[in-house]
Amino acid sequence: MAYLVYQHKRQNSSEIFYIGISNNSGRPYSRKGRNKIWHSIVNKHGFYTDILLTGLNKADACEIEIALINKYGRLILQSGKLCNLSNGGGGVSGIANPKHNLVGKKFGNLTVVSYGHGGASTKWNCLCSCGGILKVCTSNLRSGNTKSCNNPIHRVGCNQVDLSGQKFGRLTALHTTRRKIGKIMRTEWVCQCSCGQTKVVESGNLKSGHTQSCGCYQLQKITKHGCTERNKSNQRLYTFWQKMIYKCDNSKDKQYKWYGGSGIYVCKDWYNTALFFEWAINNGYDNDKTIRRIDMSQGFSPDNCRVAPIEGNWNSVGSLGKEKALEIKMLSKAGELTRKQIANKFGIAYTTVSAIVNGYNYKKLTL
Questions:
Q1: Whole-model pTM?
Q2: Residue 283 CA: distances (Å) to CA of 226, 232, 277, 279
Q3: What confidence tens digit (pLDDT) does each residue in 153-176 have?
């Protein structure tokens, strides 16, 4: 079966825009079965056909086609003027059913440029929007499993937002790095902290604000308030502050229902550790003292809190003694007074009354 090699030229300028081969003498003059780029050129400029060679076997015809396409280059690769979608050599002759031809179709950032002739599964040569070229099997293209090259040699993957140069708190994103976690390859950012240290951070943690320094900010915050191993009293105060916030704000805390769940709050100023520490120290807080509320039905604030000795704390269950604890339990059982009224009657915390009624250990202290 003899093959011929032909070319199409623009009618108004005689510029070559397509190279093809065929074993059908009528094919070079037909408009049927051409790609979209071919039709857009013809609709605008028209075309005419030049028969270059005839009487060739298929192997020689394919070899000549490949050589000519490489010579003139392809528009789809932005390196030439031909509208051919493949590199030649028979195009997609390896596809049994033309309906399965994916040449010219887009899948995410990938454009299929030619049949890949690959192994047991059908593979396609794909051009990525970033310029990368890779082979992808049909199932991965159609299912959406592969939408870009994601080649590690790229500084930023096709689906990765470029964060380089952007600042996130004290961190400045420099470049990406790849790290394998289990069976998954993750793209992370190498960041420069304002203190001079470098830290590798996931992009999600940067954009959400979860990570804003290499760790120096937390260290500086602790050091600023003296919360170090050398100053145990201030470490105790910082722990008290943390527990106070958790009990009032964190619904997962075991004691939340006695505090935040019962309307006990922390004033706005005391969310700032500097202001809380300043108040505590100015009011005589020391290693043998703690902080208690004055009105147990109200929240934590400068107006409703006092610095008190740890011993003899009237807000603890143990300090009430068994007789008062029994009296409180009897009053609650009688149902004449609510727990809040009982707390006001004895000048103790609502949570202390609840601890007694619920049979907690009398020695357990509460805020």
A1: 0.31
A2: 17, 18, 10, 6
A3: 444 445 567 788 888 888 999 888
